[in-house]
Task: inverse folding
């Protein structure tokens, strides 16, 4: 629900129980082991699923909302990236040049 669209399956590994049970990219998880996922954020959803040895999922194939979530995520990532670039602009590239510097010593000079 982090992007206002629910919790979705984004990838199903070939040969797994998930694939054998018919799960596919774009399935929205409505509930897992009795927990309502429709208003749950991603972190909480991961916690519910990670704590379980067996999962009983209620899902629906909802590619429209899944694609909306992907677009929102990409737009958010682009926005964050642009803000970071504005905050810490990359210096313009210049031709290489040789610089000679002396390292400052942290040692105190002896008093005479």
Result:
């Amino acid at each position: 629900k982090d992007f206002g669209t629910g919790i979705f399956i984004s990838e199903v590994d070939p040969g797994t129980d998930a694939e054998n049970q018919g799960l596919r990219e774009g399935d929205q998880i409505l509930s897992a082991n009795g927990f309502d996922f429709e208003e749950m954020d991603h972190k909480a959803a991961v916690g519910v699923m990670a704590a379980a040895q067996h999962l009983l999922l209620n899902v629906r194939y909802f590619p429209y909302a899944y694609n909306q979530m992907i677009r929102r995520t990409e737009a958010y990532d682009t926005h964050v990236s642009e803000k970071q670039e504005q905050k810490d602009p990359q210096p313009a590239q210049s031709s290489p040049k040789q610089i000679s510097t002396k390292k400052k010593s942290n040692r105190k000079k002896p008093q005479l």
